[in-house]
Amino acid sequence: MQRIAILGSTGSIGTQSLEVVRANADIFEVELLTAANNWELLARQAIEFQPSAVIISQGEHYDKLRSALSNEPIKVYAGAEAIEQEVVNPAIDTVITAMVGFAGLAPTVAAIKAGKKIALANKETLVVAGELIIPLSLKYNAPIIPVDSEHSAIFQCLVGEQSPIKRLIITASGGALRDLPPEELEKVTIQQALRHPNWTMGAKITIDSATMVNKGLEVIEAKWLFGVEHTDIEVVIHPESIIHSFVEFHDGALKAQMGTPDMKLPIQYALTFPKRLPLDTAPYNPIQPLTFREVDERRYPCLALAYGALREGGTVPCVLNGANEVAVARFLRGEIGYTSIARHIERAMEHFEKEKICSFEQIYELDRRTRLFT
Ligand SMILES: NC(=O)C1=CN([C@@H]2O[C@H](COP(=O)(O)OP(=O)(O)OC[C@H]3O[C@@H](n4cnc5c(N)ncnc54)[C@H](OP(=O)(O)O)[C@@H]3O)[C@@H](O)[C@H]2O)C=CC1
Ligand SMILES: CC(=O)[C@@H](O)[C@H](O)COP(=O)(O)O
Ligand SMILES: [Mn+2]
């Protein structure tokens, strides 16, 4: 039995992870579920999956959650610190990091230090601190298996491969605004930006997909996961999101992993690698045309900012990420326009001096200062 913690169980990745668990109840059992505010869904999940513990990080919901589970043999905790304390429980084998944003870093560090297998969906963890996370996972023998669809695709292409990677080609849908004339981007509504053409995801990553910050974060994530320099990582727009990325080898051979857009596949594979379990997903139609486009930097200025942050290295990706999280939250609250997101990121990157990364405390402090500045 693989005993699983799902950090962020009430979100898009979290709920799909529970679908995978439900379909394979003979293989997986749930030890820990966490959420931020959605105590009602968390309570329903707890009653169905009977974890040892649940955690709601926003304490104001604790009493309601506790009373909803008053007849269940389930421990109930509140607060972000509780996630770091409970995720190291020896009864947990695998941690699915499905929280969104920088908040996922600390619990992931705790899980790594406890030697857990990490099914990593929270890409921000590697963006802000990959330089520390990768050596830490080696030191504590905590394997990191990517859930992010492109990185899962690359990981799947590398299974059994002995040869070094020559080039990664990461595919991008182009996001919700890919066909909008660039001059109309200034005025897009939140609803327009949230209408992703291929994937149903949480709000933050959906906006990141529209700006292509997501793809920039994924380039940084790929560097840390696969040890490939930014000069050997390319991005291509592939509107159908069927090819989830390519790996090119030095003999010119390319491998890709394909499939209809369904995050349950990379989630399940991260849990069962190197085995594959059956999965009920939409069949691929081999006569469906597959198309590709170049990235228009005028439409997606954030991608160049992310490449710049990666080229700079050190603490610059942490600044990029913090400014983006603040800007996206402001956009989603209707406080700023869509094209201001790039400007927020640029200003923050210009403001903060690049530093060499020395510690997690340095990253926590820089993230805090970046949010205050942005
Ligand atoms: N969705 C997708 O298809 C993909 C997502 N990813 C990555 O996976 C991660 C999760 O994305 P997604 O599922 O879309 O996100 P969602 O916004 O759908 O879900 C986020 C989850 O994290 C919880 N959460 C949010 N903020 C905090 C916090 N400060 N402390 C503790 N818990 C918190 C939420 O709780 P609550 O519900 O109570 O708010 C929810 O359970 C992201 O890093 C994303 O980039 C990567 C590839 C694909
Ligand atoms: C499903 C997944 O992995 C997301 O990260 C997805 O890639 C977002 O789509 P974009 O390709 O539009 O960024
Ligand atoms: Mn992705």
TrEMBL record:
Enzyme Commission code: 1.1.1.267
Origin: domain of life: Bacteria
Any GO MF annotation of the entry: NADPH binding
Catalytic activity: 2-C-methyl-D-erythritol 4-phosphate + NADP(+) = 1-deoxy-D-xylulose 5-phosphate + NADPH + H(+)
Residues the record lists as binding 1-deoxy-D-xylulose 5-phosphate: 123, 149-150, 173, 196, 209, 214-215, 218
Pfam families linked to this entry: DXP_redisom_C, DXP_reductoisom, DXPR_C
SUPFAM superfamilies on file: 1-deoxy-D-xylulose-5-phosphate reductoisomerase, C-terminal domain, Glyceraldehyde-3-phosphate dehydrogenase-like, C-terminal domain, NAD(P)-binding Rossmann-fold domains
Binding site for NADPH: 10-13, 36, 38, 122, 124, 202
Domain 1-deoxy-D-xylulose 5-phosphate reductoisomerase N-terminal: 4-130
Every 1-deoxy-D-xylulose 5-phosphate reductoisomerase C-terminal domain range: 144-226
A biological process from GO: isopentenyl diphosphate biosynthetic process, methylerythritol 4-phosphate pathway involved in terpenoid biosynthetic process
Cofactor(s) in the UniProt record: Mg(2+); Mn(2+)
Segments forming domain DXP reductoisomerase C-terminal: 258-371
Family statement drawn from the similarity comment of this UniProt entry: Belongs to the DXR family.
Entry-linked NCBIfam families: Dxr, PRK12464.1
Its job: Catalyzes the NADPH-dependent rearrangement and reduction of 1-deoxy-D-xylulose-5-phosphate (DXP) to 2-C-methyl-D-erythritol 4-phosphate (MEP).
UniProt-recorded name of the protein: 1-deoxy-D-xylulose 5-phosphate reductoisomerase
